[in-house]
Design goal:
Elements lengths: L1 H8 L1 H7 L1 H10 L7 H22 L8 E9 L4 E7 L1 H20 L8 H20 L3 H22 L4 H29 L6 H6 L5 H18 L8 H8 L2 H26 L1 H27 L4 H22 L2 H32 L10 H4 L1 H14 L6 H16 L1 H26 L14 H19 L2 H18 L5 E2 L4 H4 L2 H4 L17 E2 L1 H17 L7 H7 L18
Antiparallel strand pairs: 1-2, 3-4
Length: 580
């Protein structure tokens, strides 16, 4: 009974460190029986996934963080082992735990040498990712951040292909540069802000000096921007995806890149609201450039794997765009898109790995007519491809729609320019599908169609893609408290002007009519600035609406409240002779 109680009190820690069980067991496997390491890694990762499902089923909606554990670690420096999950970190943990067993199974036949080392590094990556998404102490977050980077360097450098040594070193240099910047900012923040690493305490009490905030934000933001990666720090990503083994590409696209966006969400933006206010326009511009640039470069790619890699630059630009919008639609859409991208792009890399194992080429021109040889595989690839371009009814549509709505509320120009990436996405995905799967058969050797084992690998991702397309409230209902808290801290220094939709909705000639009752403040001089706290209160009702009915229009009364306009009790009448 006491053992059961202990595990229930430390269920999150058990989840984070459960892959270590597999690592220890694999290390004990004799070299001549190293094939057994595959089964150990698979069962261990499935056990971890089961634990994250338990966290999900017992996750409530009455407080911000659940499964908190706060124990002294290095008391002299006020460093604690403090972990917990809110809605956002919960789903990123679930996504991580889902993808790792898929990666293990996908590598079953692909990895033929040094299997023990491969699965040890794969499980070590999982420990780092789960820990980083759960850490509530900044020093602990940094430790887990480094734990997840080093194993990926070895996965690419040892089991990659082609220029794997060069690419692994490039990956390490980029990410370690960001890590050093983060470490400098972390130490300075600790010294200047009350000698605490507690993430919640630092978010609630940021440094008062805006200049110090600016420099610290740049240190943390650069580390996270490299990891996302944002334009112009993206150059390591296509190379890493191209040369990494299938499992490495799936993990990179699925969850590693989300560590960067999560860093913005959990640390950089809530810690330094003055810097966010000052640099908000620049972040918008970089996000928009990354969205359009990533999509445009994908169009001209001749390498199918690099095409998928550059599409990630575009898709993650949408996540940053939604976060910096700092309204309910944008932030919730960004969080939803983190999960959506992990499912869709992870599935694309997984499917490409299956195709590469048959034909051993990445060049699109070397394919053609695959649909006549592998019809079932073709159908699955097309399904995932159209989900990636945002087809209504599939997962990416809902996230992108919310991001566009949130961005449009801030600046319609950013939304319009970003929307061009949707057109480009349709071009590069549909054109790639046409060249690879249809037309004249280019390959002389006829490969086998997708087998039952391969289909079983991709089924969980297909189910997630379809489910989140028709039922996004599965995630939206769990993240509302977290996103509201994020916006409260991140937009403290932002003052937005009030909007005046009636200037557009009511023609000027009707505004002069004495029998037309116009609410006070709807016309006249420029509207005064609105305090962000009031704006937060207005946003709460709309935020709750998002979780149940994304596509439903807001009724008149709620729309008026959202825009800060009081409803008039006097009816508006236009004489019949003047009606149009």
């Amino acid at each position: 009974m006491q053992v059961h109680l202990f595990f229930m009190e430390h269920i999150l820690s058990l989840t984070i460190f459960s892959p270590l069980i597999g690592i220890v067991l694999i290390m004990l496997v004799p070299r001549r029986f190293e094939e057994g390491s595959r089964a150990i890694a698979l069962f261990t990762s499935l056990f971890t996934f089961a634990l994250t499902c338990y966290l999900w089923t017992n996750f409530g909606q009455t407080k911000l963080f659940y499964y908190e554990e706060n124990l002294p670690w290095i008391s002299a420096l006020n460093i604690n082992y403090h972990v917990g999950v809110d809605g956002v970190s919960l789903f990123l943990n679930i996504l991580t735990a889902l993808l790792v067993p898929i990666c293990v199974a996908a590598s079953w036949e692909e990895i033929k040498t040094q299997r023990k080392g491969f699965y040890i590094f794969l499980l070590a990556c999982e420990v780092g990712l789960l820990g980083a998404f759960s850490a509530m102490d900044l020093f602990l977050f940094y430790i887990f951040w480094e734990v997840m980077l080093i194993p990926m360097y070895f996965l690419i450098g040892i089991w990659g292909s082609g220029r794997r040594i060069y690419v692994a070193l490039k990956f390490l240099l980029f990410t370690m540069t960001g890590s050093v910047l983060m470490l400098v900012g972390l130490v300075y923040l600790y010294v200047k802000n009350g000698q605490t690493f507690d993430i919640l305490a630092i978010s609630a009490n940021p440094i008062a000096d805006p200049n110090v905030q600016l420099w610290l934000f740049l240190a943390f933001a650069l580390a996270f921007a490299i990891k996302v990666p944002m334009f112009p720090f993206h150059t390591w990503l296509p190379d890493a995806h191209t040369e990494a083994p299938t499992a490495g590409s799936v993990l990179l696209a699925g969850v590693f890149l989300k560590a960067g966006t999560y860093g913005f969400y959990r640390i950089a933006m809530p810690f330094f609201p003055s810097a966010v206010a000052e640099l908000r326009t620049y972040i918008f511009v970089l996000a928009v450039i990354g969205i359009v640039y990533g999509a445009a470069v994908s169009v001209v790619q001749k390498d199918l794997k690099r095409l998928i890699a550059y599409s990630s630059v575009s898709h993650l630009g949408f996540v940053i765009l939604g976060l910096i919008a700092l309204n309910p639609e944008g932030v919730q859409g960004a969080v939803l898109q983190m999960v959506n991208h992990g499912l869709s792009t992870g599935a694309l890399f997984l499917l490409f790995g299956m195709l590469y194992s048959r034909y051993h080429t990445r060049n699109i021109a070397d394919y053609g007519g695959i649909a006549s040889v592998m019809p079932f595989y073709t159908g699955v690839f097309i399904f995932v491809g159209i989900s990636s371009l945002g087809l209504p009814g599939l997962n990416n549509f809902v996230g992108e729609l919310l991001i566009f709505l949130g961005t449009f509320r801030v600046n319609y120009l950013y939304a319009i320019i970003s929307a061009t990436a949707i057109i480009l996405a349709a071009i590069y995905i549909l054109w790639a599908i046409e060249r690879v799967f249809f037309g004249k058969v280019a390959q002389k050797e006829h490969a086998k169609d997708m087998g039952l084992r391969e289909f079983a690998l991709v089924v969980p991702l297909l189910v997630g893609i379809l489910w989140l397309g028709v039922h996004p409230s599965t995630i939206l209902s769990k993240i509302k408290y977290s996103t509201a808290e994020f916006r409260k801290y991140a937009k403290r220094s932002i003052v937005e002007p009030a909007r005046d939709p009636l200037q557009i909705m009511i023609p000027e000639r009707l505004k002069l009519r004495p029998d037309i009752i116009i609410p006070e403040g709807a016309v006249g001089d420029e509207a005064p600035a609105v305090d962000t706290d009031d704006d937060d209160k207005k946003d709460e009702g709309y935020e709750n609406k998002l979780e149940n009915d994304v596509g439903k229009s807001v009724d008149d009364e709620e729309s008026s409240t959202e825009l800060g306009i009081e409803k008039s009790n006097i009816p508006v009448e236009v004489p019949p002779d003047n009606r149009e």
